[in-house]
Write a sequence for this structure.
């Protein structure tokens, strides 16, 4: 039985790196067409390669999938990928903001940058999810989500293709839920099934 | 009171403190960050608070108002970050292929690099124009609001560790020579050629508060507008439009565009993927 999430959740942030495409391929297609919330994703990829993420996931997902563009108003029921070589932040509106400020945890986009700015904006209405990865990025970000009263989920380290990122997140502080990818997918499906 | 409620209250206080700090900086130092996008500003100010050992933005405001010597350090946190030489090589390739042939038709050239930070973009363009045989008749205005980064830009000295990346970028930009022709390596530093610098004027200029200062054929302003709110973006784009000659060129960052601007109609898209625009004849 997967845990139910608080219905106040208005937005979801997901961070992952090594093994992330496979993990996202389990989680994102589970979002039902009427999910009704934006989902912001940072996945570490080589910086200079144009990202094909949006086109890869568009065919797999029931909700809209886009690469984030600076100043775009946030639309519910849409998955936004951070573009390569830019940080993605959530700004007033809510709207999307990009920055080319220095690398954080050797990464741009950085999970911490996305999570911290989303926690600023959404406060306790945010769900933060950290999954497989080989870096410490995301630990501080998930901590910010927790401190703002948001809900935190970490992929079970045993299952993660690379457990460094999830362990770092858990060492920083307890998560509300530690789940397998299948459970995370199920949890999001149920969240999406609730009327908003 | 539990921790969650406390965190929410602090966020709300920061929302009050942030505009007050920006007003203070403007009134005291005439630096206007009031039109900047808040999310990045908040993040940069958070780093500054850590550096200054301040717990709140109010404490930071107190410090910067009463200890003017701390302002330059704060300014470093607030201004546009360092770039690379030939960052986004395809942008420079597109300039070579599409813009340079038209620039050749002008007897003398003026180019404006707006928000030049530590100078990487200005040197990249100078090298490109030298390779294309145009630098001798070109003057590049490279402007920024931070006098400290302008000084670094003027020195044209970069850490040798960065040069391998610069070289690879340069090669992919359609280079006609070797980047090593343009710098001397010494003491772990690459010092760029003075003959490039002779064609660059570094100066203090704010897109938020200053006006047009010259007519130019090309404006390159990359990864600056993403830090501005729409109103300030529009002000900056208005300056570029007014500064450009008819059919002059505008280059923006890889993720920037004119789509939310009231000035969009004044430009045509030249190379969509590389964000090169041309001012319309009738605009």
């Amino acid at each position: 039985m997967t845990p139910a999430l608080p219905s106040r959740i208005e937005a979801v942030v997901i961070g992952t790196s090594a093994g992330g495409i496979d993990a996202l391929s389990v989680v994102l297609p589970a979002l039902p067409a009427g999910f009704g919330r934006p989902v912001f994703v940072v996945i570490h990829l080589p910086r200079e390669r144009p990202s094909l993420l949006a086109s890869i996931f568009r065919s797999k997902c029931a909700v809209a999938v886009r690469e984030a563009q600076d100043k775009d108003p946030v639309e519910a029921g849409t998955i936004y990928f951070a573009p390569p070589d830019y940080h993605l932040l959530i700004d007033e509106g809510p709207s999307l903001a990009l920055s080319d400020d220095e690398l954080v945890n050797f990464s741009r986009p950085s999970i911490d940058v996305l999570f911290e700015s989303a926690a600023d904006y959404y406060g306790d209405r945010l769900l933060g999810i950290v999954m497989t990865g080989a870096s410490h990025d995301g630990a501080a970000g998930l901590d910010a989500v927790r401190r703002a009263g948001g809900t935190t989920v970490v992929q079970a380290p045993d299952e993660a293709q690379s457990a460094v990122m999830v362990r770092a997140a858990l060492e920083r502080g307890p998560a509300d839920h530690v789940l397998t990818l299948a459970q995370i997918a199920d949890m999001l499906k149920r969240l999406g099934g609730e009327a908003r | 009171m539990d921790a969650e409620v406390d965190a929410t209250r602090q966020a709300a206080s920061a929302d009050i403190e942030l505009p007050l700090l920006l007003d203070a900086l403007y009134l005291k130092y005439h630096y206007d960050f009031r039109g900047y996008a808040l999310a990045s500003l908040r993040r940069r100010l958070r780093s500054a608070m850590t550096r200054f050992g301040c717990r709140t933005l109010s404490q930071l405001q107190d410090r910067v108002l009463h200890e003017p010597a701390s302002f330059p350090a704060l300014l470093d946190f607030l201004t546009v970050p360092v770039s690379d030489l030939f960052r986004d090589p395809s942008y420079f390739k597109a300039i070579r292929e599409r813009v340079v042939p038209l620039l050749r038709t002008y007897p003398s050239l003026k180019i404006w690099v707006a928000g030049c930070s530590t100078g990487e973009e200005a040197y990249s363009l100078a090298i490109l124009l030298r390779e294309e045989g145009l630098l001798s008749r070109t003057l590049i205005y490279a402007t920024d609001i931070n006098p400290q980064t302008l000084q670094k830009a003027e020195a044209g000295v970069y850490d040798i560790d960065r040069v391998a990346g610069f070289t690879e970028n340069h090669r992919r930009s359609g280079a006609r020579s070797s980047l090593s022709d343009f710098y001397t390596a010494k003491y772990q530093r690459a010092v760029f050629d003075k003959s490039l610098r002779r064609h660059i004027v570094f100066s203090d200029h704010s897109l938020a508060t200053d006006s047009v200062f010259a007519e130019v054929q090309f404006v390159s302003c990359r990864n600056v507008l993403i830090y501005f709110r729409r109103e300030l973006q529009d002000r900056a784009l208005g300056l570029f439009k007014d500064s450009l000659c008819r059919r002059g060129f505008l280059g923006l960052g890889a993720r920037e565009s004119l789509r939310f601007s009231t000035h969009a109609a004044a430009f045509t898209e030249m190379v969509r993927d590389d964000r090169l625009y041309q001012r319309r004849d009738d605009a």
In short: The mean pLDDT of chain A is 94. Helices of chain A lie at 20-27, 53-58, 111-122, 139-147, 164-172, 181-193.
